[in-house]
Design a protein that fits this description.
Largest sheet of chain A: 5 strands, mixed
Distance between the termini of chain A: 14 Å
Strand order of the largest sheet of chain A: 5-4-3-6-7
Shape of chain A: globular
Number of helices of chain A: 15
CATH topology of the largest domain in chain A: Nucleotidyltransferase, domain 5
Radius of gyration of chain A: 24 Å
Oligomer: homodimer
Strand content of chain A: 15-25%
Number of domains of chain A: 3
CATH architecture of the largest domain in chain A: 2-Layer Sandwich
CATH class of the largest domain in chain A: Alpha Beta
Chain lengths: 415, 415
DNA sequence: TAAAGTAAATAATATTTTTTAATAAAAACT
DNA sequence: AGTTTTTATTAAAAAATATTATTTACTTTA
C-alpha cells in the first residue's frame, strides 16, 4: 500500500490492516469526503451530506458519528428551517488540529497558525529575508519552534505545514527556484521542512496561493474560471479552474511576467529582453518615478528629490491618491501595459473574473481602470461579456488563506 | 429527475423508477464507468475494471454481464498471461451503435460515421460550404439523410451526432459564431440538429476537437498537458488538460489568433489591429507569396506569375519541400512568428507537448523548426525541459476522432 | 505427457449497506 | 393546545456487495 501524502490524516485514526480491504478504502474515502464537504462546500447536515455523497442517511450518520468520536468534527448547532425539527449542523472541530503557514517573501516572512475553521489563531511577521541569507532555514526553524512552543501547546496539534514562496515551484521535484538560487542546492524546500518537523508539508507558489485564497474566501468564491494577478516586485498570475489550482505539467503555469512585450526593451533579470516584468512590476514603477523626478518632473514627490532612496511604493500610491498627476500617470501607464498583457491571458483562459492582488492593488481604481481600459481595447468583445475585474478585498490574507486551503485540500482530497 | 444529455444512453436500458434510488444511481454510474474505462482507458478485463472502479470482482462481473446482455460490450477474446488462466477481454460492441460526425468547414463539409470501436465506417466529403449559403442547413440535412438511409440501416442505430465547426462556440448558449454570422440568427446549431434528428448532438470548435483527437489517439496520448495548434486559415489553439478539453468560462479559451503581436500591423477581420492571425495563418502566407512574386522575387513559383489566383497552399509547400528558397523563407518567417506567439501560451499553460495540426503542418520540419527556434528564444529554459513539439501523425483524421471521442465521453461521462 | 504452479471464474458464505418502518423530537402553523 | 411538518433515531428485513473457498483453465517445468 502506497503512503501518499493525501493519506496522512485518516490513516492514524482508522484501523488499517496490512492489506486494506475495498470496504475500508471506500469508508475512508467517504469520511474524507464528509470532511471535505463540510470544510469547502458548506454541506453540514446529515441530509445534505447524504445527498452529496450518494449514501443513505443511516450510513452517513454512522460515519459522522465516527468523525465526531475522533474529534474531527462536532455538532455546532442547528440550522434554521421553515418548519419541522431543525437539522443538526456539523462543523470542523476548530481546536483539534492546526495548520502552520509560512509566507516567505523576498522582504519578510510571515508565520501564521490557523485552525481548521479557517481562523488565523496567531500571526507574526518577521524580517527574515529569503535573499542572501545562507542560514535562512535555521533561523526559520528557530522562529517556528518558538511559536509552536508558546502558542500551540507544544506542537502536538499541528498536523501539517504550508509554505508560500515566490518563483517557480517544480511540482515533480518540489524544488523551488528562488530557494535554489539562494544556496544553489537542488533540494526541495518542502522535503527539508518535512524532514525536520516530520509533518506533511506543502509548498506552493505565492501567486497560486493568493488565487486559491481568492477562490475559496474572496471575491472569486464559486467562480469556475479565476485569474488573480499578483502585482508585486514581479508579475505573478495565479489560475484557478473549476476549483483547482492550474499548475501546468511541471507546476510553472501562469508565468505572465516573462512574456516579451517589448523587443527593444531592457534586459530582464531572467536573461531575456523586454519581459512584462521589466515594464509593469512595482520595481519598474519605482524606477520610473525616480527617473522622472531626476529629469525634473513636477510632482508632490519633489520633496524626495535629494533622497530618492527613501521613496517607496506606499509613498507613491499615497501621492497618487491625493491627486498627484505625475504619480497617477506612472501608475496609469503601468496599468495599461499590464492590461495589455492580461488581455492575452484573457484570450487564452477565458476567465470569469480577474482579481488584482499584491502591493499595487492598494492603488485601487487608479490601477484597475487602465487595466480595464486595455482589456477593452485588446480583447474580443465576447470575452468581456462575463468578465469582471476586481480589487482584492482579502489583501495579504488571501495568500495565507490560500495556503491553508491548499494544505487542507491536499490532506483531505479523495484520490 | 433532470434529464441531462449525459444521461441519454443508459436510461433506456436500465430500469429507472420514478425516483431513482441511491443504488440505481451508483449502479448506473458504475456501468458508465465500465464503458468509459473500456473505451478510453484500455481496461478490458474483469480484474482491471475491479481495481480501477474499486469494486469487487463478483460485482463487476454482474455489471459486465448486464452490459453484454444489453449488447454494449462483448467478449472479444482472451488476454495473454505468463501463467494461469487467461482473463477474458471485453470490448465495446462495434456494431450496435454509431456516431455521426459532421466536420463543417469554410471550404467543405465532411460527414463520417464511426462505430464505438472508433473506426470510421463511412466517410464522405461534400463541397457544401458554410459561408454565404442561406440554405446550408437544409442541404446538410439532405446529405446526412441520404447517408443514414444508405449506410446505417435506416438510421436506427445512430445514437448521437457530433459537429466540428470553426469559430467560437458558446458553451452556455450553444451558439456558434461562425454559423451566427452566416444567417445572423441567435440560434444554437446543435439545438437545430438535435431537434431535427431527435438525437443528442454535441457541437465543438474544430481546434478543440483536433486537440482532443491528438490526446486520445495521436502523439499526445496520455499526456496531461497538451496544446494543439491548428495552423489553417486562422490560428486555432486546442488545449487538453488532464484529459479534458479546456473550455474557459464561456467556451472561448485558446483564442491565440487574436492576440496583438504587431501594434503597427494590418487590420484583422475581427476589427483589431495586428492580430497573430494576420501574420501567421495560411491566408497570410499565400498573401506573402503573391506579394513577393509580384515584386519580382526569384522562385520556382515564377511560373504562376501571371496566374497568381491559381496558387494554393499545396503548391507552395510542395515548392518549399523541393528546395525553393523563397517558399522556404516565407514559411520559415511564419513559423518564427507563430513560435513567438506560442511561447506565450507555453509560459501560461506549461504544456508537455505541442502538436502542429492544420494545412501548414504538411510543411513538416520547415514549419516545426522555426517554431522550435522561437520557443527556444522566447521561453524560459525550465519550460522547455519537458516540452516536445511534434507534427501531427493523424492529420485531418485527428478532428474526426476528436469529435467522436467528445461525443462518446459526453454520453458516458459520470456526472 | 503429466504434475505442479498460477491466475481467472464461479459458487458459497459472510458482511455491509440500504431500505423500510415506526417512533421520538423539535419547530411552525392553526 | 393540538396539528402539521420536518428531522433524528432506532430496529429489522431486504438487498447488495465483499470475502473466502472451490473449481476451472492455462502455462511452465520436469
Amino acid at each position: 500500500m502506497s503512503t501518499s501524502k493525501t493519506e496522512y490524516i485518516l490513516e492514524n485514526d482508522v484501523e488499517v490492516n496490512s492489506r486494506e480491504s475495498v470496504v475500508d478504502i471506500k469508508k475512508n474515502k467517504q469520511k474524507k469526503g464528509i470532511l471535505y464537504d463540510i470544510y469547502f462546500n458548506d454541506k453540514n447536515t446529515i441530509a445534505e451530506l447524504s445527498q452529496s455523497l450518494n449514501s443513505s442517511i443511516p450510513s452517513i450518520t454512522a460515519l459522522v458519528d465516527e468523525l465526531v468520536e475522533e474529534k474531527w468534527i462536532s455538532e455546532t448547532g442547528f440550522a434554521i428551517s421553515r418548519q419541522g425539527r431543525r437539522p443538526a449542523i456539523y462543523g470542523v472541530n476548530p481546536n483539534k488540529n492546526y495548520v502552520l503557514v509560512l509566507d516567505i517573501n523576498t522582504h519578510d516572512t510571515r508565520i501564521a497558525v490557523l485552525n481548521l475553521k479557517n481562523e488565523i489563531v496567531f500571526s507574526q511577521v518577521s524580517d527574515l529575508q529569503l535573499k542572501n541569507n545562507p542560514s535562512f532555514l535555521e533561523t526559520l526553524f528557530q522562529l517556528v519552534d518558538n511559536i509552536v512552543e508558546q502558542k500551540v501547546s507544544k506542537g502536538k496539534d499541528v498536523i501539517a505545514l504550508g509554505v508560500s514562496i515566490p518563483g517557480l515551484v517544480n511540482k515533480k521535484t518540489g524544488i523551488n527556484y528562488t530557494y535554489k538560487s539562494l544556496n544553489s542546492q537542488d533540494v526541495s524546500l518542502g522535503k527539508l521542512i518535512e524532514n525536520y518537523y516530520n509533518l506533511p508539508t506543502f509548498v506552493i507558489n505565492d501567486s497560486k496561493a493568493t488565487a486559491f485564497g481568492e477562490y475559496h474566501f474572496g471575491l472569486a468564491k464559486g467562480k469556475s474560471h479565476v485569474l488573480s494577478v499578483n502585482v508585486d516586485w514581479g508579475i505573478g498570475l495565479g489560475i484557478v479552474i473549476n476549483g483547482e489550482i492550474f499548475d501546468g505539467a511541471s507546476g510553472f503555469a501562469g508565468e505572465l511576467g516573462h512574456i516579451q512585450v517589448n523587443p527593444d526593451g531592457v534586459l530582464c533579470n531572467c536573461g531575456k529582453v523586454g519581459c512584462l516584468d521589466t515594464i509593469t512590476s512595482a520595481s519598474s514603477l519605482l524606477k520610473n518615478i525616480k527617473d522622472g523626478l531626476r529629469n525634473g518632473h513636477v510632482s508632490k514627490l519633489d520633496e524626495y528629490k535629494d533622497s530618492l532612496e527613501n521613496i517607496n511604493l506606499e509613498i507613491v500610491i499615497d501621492a497618487a491618491q491625493k491627486g498627484d498627476g505625475f504619480a497617477i500617470d506612472i501608475i496609469h501607464n503601468i496599468g495599461l501595459e499590464l492590461g495589455k498583457g492580461l488581455s492575452i491571458a484573457v484570450h487564452l483562459f477565458n476567465p470569469q473574473i480577474i482579481i488584482i492582488d499584491g502591493v499595487l492593488s492598494k492603488a485601487q481604481k487608479l490601477i484597475v481602470n487602465p487595466i480595464e481600459h486595455a482589456i477593452n481595447k485588446y480583447c474580443l468583445t465576447d470575452f468581456k461579456e462575463d468578465l469582471s475585474i476586481e480589487i482584492s478585498q482579502l489583501s495579504e490574507d488571501a495568500k495565507i488563506f490560500g495556503v491553508h486551503a491548499y494544505v487542507v485540500e491536499a490532506l483531505l482530497k479523495t484520490a
